[in-house]
Amino acid sequence: MSEETVEIIKEQYLAGKAAFERGQYRQSVQCLEKAGALVDRNTRFGGEVQIWLVTAYEAAEQRKEAIALCKQLDRHPSYDIRQQSRRLLYILEAPQLNRRPEWLTQIPDLGAIADHESKTRLGSAAPGGKSSSRSFSPPEPVDLSQVNTKDNRFIWVALIGVLLILGSLVWWGF
Fold it and tell me: What parts of the sequence cross the membrane (predicted)?
């Protein structure tokens, strides 16, 4: 395998992992499939690429492909890869629990937001043509005539209590 091929494999693998972590599961599947097609599947690294691909398949709602790949990985030469594939297969083949809709919280898909929309929301221009640059303004001064500054003697009671506790600890030799 040439150095150029190894670099392409690593590049696609890292791109697939990064896409997965950003929630772009279909893109992750594409990158990991490219890396998996080029890598020697019987190496530890090849097994790791395929384990990530199983996870990406499941996240992209391609459960049949994930299960099929897990079953192939059950015959991998690396013990760790076989163990991970068995664990993943156990999870993938587990029966789905019935969930009531009121138990779930719907999370909106943020992948559909275009770059220009996010830049607009982050403060490049506010509605009405005004700039939405957020400047720091110091807090307003407090009118001390409105504040109750009467001593409530809590500090003295707390200090005496702490001194009594410390004195008793010294007395008993702790």
Answer: 154-173
CA distances from 19 to 23, 45, 117 (A): 6, 19, 20
Phi, psi dihedrals of residue 123, rounded to the nearest 5°:
120, 15
- Give the Cα separation of 172 and 169 in Å (integer): 5
* Alpha-carbon distances, residue 117 vs 19, 27, 114 (angstroms): 20, 21, 5
| Residue 149 phi, psi dihedral angles, 5° rounding | -105, 15
Determine the pLDDT at residue 146: 78
Could you please report the per-residue DSSP string of 92-154?
HTSPPPP--GGG------GGG--HHHHHIIIII--TTS--------PPPPP-GGGS-----SH
Over residues 2-50, the pLDDT tens digits come to: 888 989 999 999 999 999 999 999 999 999 999 999 999 899 999 999 9
Fold of domain 3-92 = 1.25.40
Dump the DSSP string for 57-93: HHHTT-HHHHHHHHHHHTT-SSHHHHHHHHHHHHHHT
Q: Domain coordinates of the chain in residue numbers?
A: 3-92
- Residue type present at position 30: Q
Q: Which residues contact 46 (CB under 8 A, 6 or more apart)?
A: 36, 39, 40
